[in-house]
Amino acid sequence: KRPAGAPDRSLARPVTKVGIVGAGLMASQMALLFVRRLEVPVVLTDLDQERVDKGVAYVHAEIDKLLARGRISNDRANRLGALVTGAVDKETFHDADFVIEAVFEEMSVKKSVFADVEKAVSPECVLATNTSSLSITEMAADLEHPERVVGFHFFNPVAVMPLLEIVRGEETSDATLATAFATGKALKKTTILVNDSPSFIVNRLLGRFMGEVGRIVDEGTPVPVVDGAFAGVAPMPPFVLLSLVGPAIALHNNETLHGAFPDRFYVSPALERVVAARKASYYGPDGSLDPEVEALLEQP
Ligand code: 3HC
């Protein structure tokens, strides 16, 4: 017997071409995974050609690394490389079956991206979002076909983290959900169905954890001491993880959760200062705490 809410597998539609909106690091990592596991054309789009070229170049460089490490043959590297292309115009999605967005984590931006993509794709094309915290139902609300929207949330680094959270919105159809699960399986991820609630499961739990970590630092404990406390406890110390994810994303997650559950989630003023200063990492290339971040943490 299928667990409640699980999709009927027979409804899954084939995915023969993938579109990715956004050509940043997360999107490029996703492009690599899709092309490697599905071996279908994957098109990256972004606002301008420079960003698109950068995303495509990242995927090609990662394919070269796999070749250099003997993970894939020369033939396969050439084949995969040729399958990854980029374009600014979303018209290129006209024959895609599965389009996923990984743009800025802001509801209005995501909604306008989906409205734009919907004009280019067929009515059956799945629109997936890699949002880490926002409502799938709300994101789909103004579309002509809200039933094709589904949450498809990867974790960083995309190539190695096994989990994929699949989020069903109020209007998501069984066929969309089944296609999302079949695609997740083809990507060799562990797929779980999660409720359309703020930050789903993993980021909600992480939000509690990172909030408490932030509070400890706000109370005066230095970041390296907090991180040092995790040696051998977790695969990555908290501020290394926060730097991998990106301080802005981590802050956004806790703001979203604080908005939904104000008594349970903490928004660290020090993290707000780090994000306002546009710092991408707490640590410098040599692995020591970035002095500018240190100064921001010490401000009242
Ligand atoms: N990209 C691609 N591959 C990577 C990578 C990266 N950034 N970092 C490491 N890898 C690969 C390595 O190539 C290696 O592959 P191999 O075994 O095939 O050679 C494998 O991962 C293990 O790497 P290492 O042995 O060098 O390093 P570690 O043992 O330290 O593991 C890690 C690296 C798997 C990233 C580990 O540190 C880890 O699990 N960290 C926690 C990551 C995590 O919790 N992510 C979730 C964040 S929350 C999130 O993303 C949600 C979002 O919405 C914000």
Automatic annotation (TrEMBL):
All copies of domain 3-hydroxyacyl-CoA dehydrogenase NAD binding, residue ranges: 17-196
Species annotation: Nocardioides soli
Example GO biological process: fatty acid beta-oxidation
GO MF entries: enoyl-CoA hydratase activity; long-chain (3S)-3-hydroxyacyl-CoA dehydrogenase (NAD+) activity; NAD+ binding
Record's protein name: 3-hydroxyacyl-CoA dehydrogenase/enoyl-CoA hydratase/carnithine racemase
UniProt similarity note: In the central section; belongs to the 3-hydroxyacyl-CoA dehydrogenase family. Belongs to the 3-hydroxyacyl-CoA dehydrogenase family.
The organism's place on the tree of life at top rank: Bacteria
Domain 3-hydroxyacyl-CoA dehydrogenase C-terminal: 200-280
UniProt keyword list: Fatty acid metabolism, Lipid degradation, Lipid metabolism, Lyase, Multifunctional enzyme, NAD, Oxidoreductase
